[in-house]
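thought: fold this chain, then report.
action: predict
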Amino acid sequence: MPRDVKYGEVVIEHGNFPDPDEPVFILRAQDVMAIGTLRDYQEQAFRCGCSNEFNRSLINVLERFKKWVGTRKRPD
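observation:
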């Protein structure tokens, strides 16, 4: 299973992780830096020539992060 430094083993429903020790990086909607980080990632994905489908999925993720109404905070 992939692992995050803070959260430990991560279960991803549709993930394909052949290496159980593969590190992952988790962004939570409560993180005040998450939206900016996702925008930067989207820009890099576009520059790298990622598919339109992938870029659309990032747009959907960004919208979900923007619409989240919980309390936002700095990372621990």
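thought: worth noting. Residues 52-67 form the longest helix (16 residues).
final: tokens above.
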